[in-house]
Amino acid sequence: MSDAGLAPEPMIFPLRSGRGSISLHASGFRHPGGAFAREAFTAYADLTHWISGSRALRFGTRRGLFVIPRNWFPDPDQADAFQRALFEHVARETNGAVHLARMADVDAFAREGSSRWASRGIALACLAVYALELWLGPAVHHAGFFSSLLAVRGEPWRLLTANLLHADLVHLSVNTIGLLVLGGLVERSLGTGRTIWIAGLSALGATLAGVVAGYEALVGASGIVAGFAAAILLLEFRFPERLPVQWRIPRRLFVMALLADAMLPLAVPFVAGAAHFGGFLAGGAATAIVAAPGLRREPVAPALRVAIALVAAVAVASLLSASRLLGGGRAWESHAERLLDLEETSPLILNDAAWLIATGRAPTRKALVDARELARRAVDATDRLDPNLLDTLAEVEFQSGHADEAVDVIDEAIRLAPEEPYFREQKRRFAGERAADDRPAPPEPFLDPAPEPRRMPDDRFHRFGPDAEPGVEI
């Protein structure tokens, strides 16, 4: 029994040994199926775009993307002969001329100039913020990291600014590549304005998922990357006939990669799976709202223009709000008050704020008073067993003019970590044997606390540099 729709005598193009063959039939053609299938059948009517490259023939269908390297043909000329024969079969279809014209239009769409300002701009912003953190220190991180408690208690800018912060260079590199590659594909397809819309809602969706999950700390652009992945997946399944081959990703491979990302939090506990999922859902929903068959060519509705402008304005306002903490002064007073009003804040976040106030530029008397209370709460929450947190309390006491109290507290840290010279040098400074502004270099790596303090699981203190971040990361 022969397959329905196949010609009794197909035109066959043999491939090299182990590669099978290509056969042209009445309604479609059989060809190698890629990594997950030895052979596939594509109806001529399902062919969406074709590219004849110097190394391979690439074609898109309503079901996916396929690649046939030219060196699979025993004779290079056979690749061109196959291509000519294929297009002759397509032209003989009932709507062959219309089909070929539609494929030519997709090709023209791919060649049209399209900016990638949005995806590149977001990636550049992540790089700039990371450079700023290296320059100004951990105050940048503290000003912008996401905390579900702070976000809902007066610091909503953290819902967006956390997406630009990263734990280390590897974290930054992975997300930057994702923004440029996946974001670039989305922007080529839908344009800059719609990409800004998708990125903004994906960022918000990621951090709002963090609120639901109760994350104490969260940083990274992975939520935006997940949103772009959802956009690509939606475009692939809704508008495959409009997507040029070079803008498509093999479906099965892409879905497997998404499933692997979904499983990642099971293997790496500090990866924020809820934030990834939130960004993915928000990105998919945002794409469903703005995507239409015309893709980038589709006119942007006035309401959407307003929404895009609003997203951009909120992003700028969030950055400006976070930057106020970098200026020091009274901005830290309101921040410290919010932390003191919270009942279940991580001692490490309390400690961070206290240290940054004490060592910042010209802290106000009110801010130092609050910093003293923050440091005391952090020390009490860890049963005075963490020498690092004791050092912060000692620093605040010293900056507040209480040198004797600073010496008493640093003595506790020395008893907990007698082999660490940093704490002894701090004592010399507090006692006047070392200049007051000559703060010793902190220990590397940062010391582990003594056993069994009352602290939140998976928290890591990050005061001494950007390479160690607290809580959960994305």
What is the correct CATH architecture of the largest domain?
A: Up-down Bundle
Q: Tell me, what's the shape?
A: elongated
- Percent range of helical residues: 55-70%
Determine the N-to-C terminus distance. Answer: 55 Å
Overall strand count: 7
Helix/sheet category: alpha+beta
What does this structure look like?
The protein folds into three domains: 11-111, PH-domain like (Roll), CATH 2.30.29; 117-326, Rhomboid-like fold, CATH 1.20.1540; 328-474, Serine Threonine Protein Phosphatase 5, Tetratricopeptide repeat, CATH 1.25.40. Helices cover 56% and strands 8% of the residues. The protein has 18 helices and seven strands. It has a four-stranded antiparallel beta sheet, covered by helices on one side. The chain starts with 10 loop residues before the first strand and ends in a 44-residue tail after the last helix.
Q: Would you spell out the secondary-structure blueprint of this structure?
A:
Blueprint lengths: L10 E4 L6 E4 L3 E5 L6 E5 L3 E6 L3 E6 L2 E6 L6 H16 L4 H16 L5 H20 L2 H6 L3 H4 L6 H4 L7 H22 L1 H22 L8 H17 L12 H17 L5 H18 L11 H25 L4 H11 L5 H13 L5 H17 L5 H13 L3 H14 L4 H10 L44
Antiparallel strand pairs: 1-2, 2-3, 3-4, 5-6, 6-7
Helix pairs in contact: 1-2, 3-7, 7-8, 7-9, 8-9, 8-11, 8-12, 9-11, 13-14, 13-15, 14-15, 14-16, 15-16, 16-17, 17-18
